[in-house]
Please model this.
Amino acid sequence: MPRRTSHLDMTGVNGDPSAHRDVADELTLGLLPEERLLDHPLIRGTVIRTEPCLEAYLEFKRRLCFGLNGFSLLAESGMGRKSAMISIRSQLFRDFPSLAVAEITLRRDAPHTTRARWQALLSDLGHRALKGSNEDLRSRVLWMLEERLYGSPLPHLVLFIRNVEYLDGDLTRILLDLSDALNRKGFRMFVVSCGQIARFGLNLSTVGVEAANDMRSLLGSPFALRALNSEEDLAVILEEIDTQIIGPEDPRHWGESFLPKAYQNGFSLKDQSARLLAAMADIPQGTVTTHTVFDSIRWVLVTSSGNDQSSFMLPERIWNDALLIAQSARFVPLLENSDGHNDAR
Model:
């Protein structure tokens, strides 16, 4: 029985079939084009640094170099704060390759005892020995941080904290204690945190005055990640998709892999930045998130790939349609049950 064919011309994603292939490559040999599409950098969510991300990094770098305590990146849901953190960390390694770095992730189900908090910190730092007294656990956490510092010629440790909206007073005091302990040994801890702005604000207003002051001391003043709101913002993203190479075994550009004939004849996503911005202006103010923009770009490329030709042009209202479809895909409505109760499905 012949294999099903597809309008998605992704057969070259894995490069020359005669080239050396590892186990992961071999697993892709029998995949349909739609399945190979899932491994495309744009589809699997490879981070593209946006102008708002760059602004956030420059502010972080300014505070670090000015000797301040921290940088707290806050944003509404869907504005790309997690991608921004990845971008900041990636750029940090390029600009300060010798800097000591550690990372912890806070969770909704935060531990409620001092012992459990120390164990969670140890686990995030990669230590498997979670037994012993609280003082033993504290010593191990401090040793893990010092170990990173002793391997660096610089006295600074950058501690990344994800989901800072779940930070509470007790963990704040633990982290301040660690910072003081490092200071006494001649080191300096700089905290980079990110979180959902509304939840963080609510948390800060309910922890009490002393804990709130401790949090501000640890985290520094907040920096709000802005939305994509200009033609230049969009052009930077679209040009990246036009020019980024898929990988060492596939020299095609990201966008070209969807529309090879159109790109060969001069098509460019960057030229669509004004049209995309105009379509965003037609959406009710404040509803176009960064996630929605990226989802709409993916939708346009995937759905257009079946119409690829040298004279290809995007339909007039395709960006309007893409934004509406992207929004509806991320919107989870509340459906009313027959008994009159609301139920999220």
